[in-house]
Amino acid sequence: IFIMATGMVASQEGGYMRDPRKHHFSPYMDNGGTTVAIAGDDFVMVASDTRLSRGFNIFTREQGKVFKLTDKTMLASTGCWADVLTLNKMFQARLTMYTHEHQDNMSTTAAAQLLSTMLYWRRFFPYYVSNILVGLDEEGKGVVYHYDPVGHMEKLEFSASGASVAQIQPLLDNRVGGLNMQGEKPKMTKELAHELINDSFVSATERDINTGDGVVIYTITKDGINEETVKLRRD
């Protein structure tokens, strides 16, 4: 038996059969990570874990996944780390061009629309990235925009994405969205948002090897951006 260039196998009996070997190539790699965002009346809180991994291999335990765009806007991205860095680089370039042309920073609403356009432009070979864009709108209210890989966006009060979304999103739906909850849903405060984000990452770390080591929490208000790091389990 010998293998021909066509991928078919020729046998000594003179017949042909298809080569059982499968050749597979994927340009994407999932490097794990989880992001969570919760918006309030005058703030928005966004967080990510700090583990960057590939399967059972941990590349680093100190890599956050939230990027500052302006003093009122941030972008949280997980997925293929090469695509995360490329998307953020292109996004930052577009923001710089806008600032030089208009002598002002782009608003959160405009940045949200720009990201949607950039993702849709790559729809035939999309970035392998899950994105959440957060910030303060023109009225100073916290907003959360969630995206699919080809640019469809949805304006929400809370969202999660990445490796542990299946564990965290139901918690947010119940505690923040008030689903399956008796009585009125609680008013969102900075203290409650911080507690929910912390608890959600602690729970996810116990069940998902792609999330862990630490969580970096950013709080955006009219006074600026505050950063806090909380340690998680490292195994």
TrEMBL record:
Similarity remark: Belongs to the peptidase T1B family.
Q: Name one Pfam family in it.
A: Proteasome
Q: What is this protein called?
A: Proteasome subunit beta
Going by the UniProt record, its keywords in alphabetical order are: Cytoplasm, Nucleus, Proteasome
Q: Which InterPro entries match?
A: Ntn_hydrolases_N, Proteasome_bsu_CS, Proteasome_sua/b, Proteasome_suB-type
Native organism: Meganyctiphanes norvegica
Q: Which SUPFAM superfamilies match?
A: N-terminal nucleophile aminohydrolases (Ntn hydrolases)
What does it do? Non-catalytic component of the proteasome, a multicatalytic proteinase complex which is characterized by its ability to cleave peptides with Arg, Phe, Tyr, Leu, and Glu adjacent to the leaving group at neutral or slightly basic pH. The proteasome has an ATP-dependent proteolytic activity.
Q: Where does the UniProt entry say this protein principally localizes?
A: cytoplasm
Coiled-coil segments on the chain, per record:
none
Checking Gene3D superfamilies in the record gives: Glutamine Phosphoribosylpyrophosphate, subunit 1, domain 1
Question: GO biological process: what's one of them?
Answer: proteolysis involved in protein catabolic process
Q: Does the keyword Cytoplasm apply?
A: yes
Output a single Gene Ontology CC term carried by this record.
Answer: cytoplasm
How does this polypeptide assemble, per the annotation? The 26S proteasome consists of a 20S proteasome core and two 19S regulatory subunits. The 20S proteasome core is composed of 28 subunits that are arranged in four stacked rings, resulting in a barrel-shaped structure. The two end rings are each formed by seven alpha subunits, and the two central rings are each formed by seven beta subunits. The catalytic chamber with the active sites is on the inside of the barrel. Component of the proteasome complex.
Q: List the subcellular locations.
A: Cytoplasm; Nucleus
